[in-house]
Each structure stands twice: as C-alpha cells, then as structure tokens.
Fold this protein.
Amino acid sequence: MRTDGRRLCKKLNQLDPLALPHVAAYFQALSEPLRLRILNELRSGPRNVNELTARLDCSQANVSKHLGVLARLGFVARHARGTAAYYRIADEVVYDLCDLVCDRIALRLQHHVETLRAFRPKAERPARAAARKPGKTARRTAEDDLP
Amino acid sequence: MRTDGRRLCKKLNQLDPLALPHVAAYFQALSEPLRLRILNELRSGPRNVNELTARLDCSQANVSKHLGVLARLGFVARHARGTAAYYRIADEVVYDLCDLVCDRIALRLQHHVETLRAFRPKAERPARAAARKPGKTARRTAEDDLP
DNA sequence: AACGTCAATAACTATACAGTAATATAGTCA
DNA sequence: TGACTATATTACTGTATAGTTATTGACGTT
C-alpha cells in the first residue's frame, strides 16, 4: 500500500487534531451492528439492496440508509444495474479492523473465563455477586487494573 | 498472541451474530474525537485525570466519563495513587486500529486531490459545483464508483 | 477534626441517529 | 403511455449519549 515515495501522515499521534473527527467518523460507521452485518454479507460478494434486505431481515429503507453511510465513507461502492443497485466492498481494510477487534474481544472473554474459573472450584457461589448499594455515590477506590 | 491450541473465534464472518453488538461497542468507543485525543495523550505514558483535563482543555467530569467508557471496554487501565487516578493504555491494539484508519483516510484524501487535479488544468472553475435542487427528491442514477 | 484537592457520579439539556412509514424517482416491461 | 419494481429520500419518533453543573466521597495536610 502506497510505496510511491511521498507518504501521507499515517500515525494517529502525528495527526493534526483537526483530522481526529474524520478518524472518529470512520469508527462510528463501524459502530452499528446492522452495518457490520451488511459488511459481513458483502464479504461473499456484491449484493443488491433487495438481497440484503431479505437476508438481514430488516426494512429496505433502513438498509439503503446504512449503505449510504458506508458508501459515503468509502467502505462500499455502488454499481447500478437496471433498477437494482449492487454494492460491493470498496475497502478491504474493514475486515482487518473487524478481525483485530474480534481478536481482542476473544482475548478479553478468555480472560474473563479464566478469572471466573478461579472462583469456581471452591464453591458454586456466583462470582462477583457483590451487590452495589444503589442511590449512593460509590466512589471507586483501589480495585484497579482488573480488566 | 494465543498460541495454545484452542483458538477462539477471530474472523468477523465466523462470528455469532450475537457477538456483533460487542464488536460494534468496541468501535463506538473509538468514535468520539475526545476519546481519541485521550488515547493519543496516553501514548506518551500514564496520565492522571487532572493532567488530561488540562492538556485537552475540557471539563474534568467529561474526561472522567470518557475514561470510564474506555476503561469499561479495556482500552485503558486505572491505577490510583493517593487521590489521583492514573490511566494508562491497557490494549495497544487501539493504535493499530487508529493507524489503519488514518492510513485509509490519507489514501482517500490523496485520491480526492488527484481527482480534483484532473479538473483544474482546464480552467479555474471549482470542481463539482453542480448545485443540488433542494426540496426535490434527487434519486441517484449512474454516477457510481466514484469514491 | 477541619480543610483542600482530586476524581467519580447524578441530574439535566441538547443533539445525533437508528428505525419506520410514506413518498418520489429511475428503469423495465407490457 | 401506463403499470410495476427497485431504490433513495423525507419527515417523524424514540433512544442514546456528549457535555455541563453540582455534588459526593476519598485521600492528604495542617
């Protein structure tokens, strides 16, 4: 990717603060489950709106709107054929992003499982059932670093 | 990362649909400019709330709330020292994510620049100044695939 | 103990946005 | 030309959330 000498700024920490909203917008586009499902469907190849609507079991207007969001950010591209509008992935990087995140979540769940296991052998009490007093401002103190 | 035989699901397309909201939540945490700025600050090392508040020029309550979001998802970790609360990056993957996105945005901008350049040499007319008729439902037709 | 500082929370407001229903438009076919 | 289909858009509603202000609680110092 991009080996032609001039290299545009790449690292977040080298980024002009003005560019951050753009980065945020990118992530925001991926922050909706339905949009992720759409991208997931497109993984198998281009699909038109109708097909997506059927497979995702939601309204056509909703799918169209989400596709608009994804297209505006360049994640998908549109190609009209007759009255149908076919969409395809235009930027494979979304899968890299998703896979990175999925990996981290898996790790975190793994962590959780192991933590829970540490509680189980002794007795069958549900781990971490310490009831919070509601209505009181319970300031956190030193139970740090427990992910 | 994780080489112990059993491998948790990793790819988005192998993911249970029930897991998608978790992935979306991950991205959502990165979809706020201020949170990205916080992460950017933490790149230089742990900071307490006060320091972050000063450097980011926003309210302490707001910083605390955003740090709470980032901590809940495991992006940062908290460590109390006296009355101060120090936060540090707990998951370096955020920088991989951000760098990927920054790279794509740079590419997109590059693309834009080149597209614009194609319009310039002829005359000085501002490219793509085709005024949209407001109040009319302008259905898109065949100007596809232009990113 | 009394006070000051730091951080987290609660209550509130304003805004953004996902979803729906209705409608408009482009292309197709009779 | 007139249905018919597929898609995009509009107007609307409900919900989520960023930011603010005020408050609470924990810790440290005197």
Residues 48-50, 60-61, 63-65, 67-68, 80, 82-85, 136-142 of chain B lie near DNA strand C (CB under 10 Å from a C1').
